[in-house]
Amino acid sequence: MARNGEWSFKKVQWTNGGFRKRVINYYKTIEKYKNKYTVLSLCKLFKITRASYYRWCCKGKPEYDLKIDMNLALKIKNIFTNNNGIYGSPRIRIILNNQGLEVSQTKVARIMKIFKLYSIIRVKKMYRKPKEIKTITHGPNYVNRNWSIFLKNECWVTDVSYIPLNKKFAYLSIIKDANTGFIVGHKLSLKNDVELYRKTLEKASFYRNDLSKKLIIHSDNVNQYTSIFAKKYAKRNNIIISLSRPGNSIDNAMCETFFSSLKEEWKQQLKQNNFLDLEKSIDNYIEFYNYERIMVKHKTPPAYVYLKLTQNKKNVSNYVETFL
């Protein structure tokens, strides 16, 4: 069955406009003959539920208006194309509601299916248990997947991912705020070493003004995050190091979800021939991710929550420097 990407169509009852128009004709027929026959018998004849008929009556017995649906479909299509096919029905519904148009997610998904607007989906990979799991850990796991208990700038998560580049790899390091999802720092390099982590921390430090408050930085059990530099930097800047358990990538799921979104939603733009073009493409995506991409949880981009920006600003990226 075709999928919208962010929401399953199994819950959609009206798959096309013709079927919906036919159901409304059933309601009119029941309304016409309900004095001669019972509503229950007529609903059984048309194979519909009484609840749906009474719901239609409570709504004022509306007619099927194809013109209204076409106007809505045009707005949905514009939102879909303007965001490179990334948004599915949940995010498009949020945008329409923010524009003052009250519409359900079911209706948006139905229209998207009719016009074959399928968003980019993240394909689930089969879980494979690692052959060998190291039992040695270099520190405790203070976070333990409890992301919701932290406020802004109380917990950052960090990780490194591989980006293909000319039959080799470039390495993308990010630091992400666990509460708001805002990417506070990122750096691309051809080497996966401690220097890459140091430069990422330098970028992220601009968003941390109060060093008296403790900050937890959660990461994997790899050498960059357990190095002498990482421990000295943490001690000097009032930082607590939290490490995932060996062989448990879900412990650092906040970073893994970002890398998954990047590699699926920006798949074509990541196919670059040189390092500078790849770096520019990743910068563009992270700017889109921070300032434009809708989060279903907050119904706004991460920057509106992290930087406390208002939605009436046309280009929020121009206002970043005022909050540093």
TrEMBL record:
Source organism of this protein record: Spiroplasma tabanidicola
NCBIfam families xrefs: transpos_IS3
Span of domain Integrase catalytic: 136-310
GO MF terms, alphabetically ordered: nucleic acid binding
UniProt protein name: IS3 family transposase
Pfam families: HTH_21, rve, rve_2
Task performed by this protein: Involved in the transposition of the insertion sequence.
GO terms (BP aspect): DNA integration
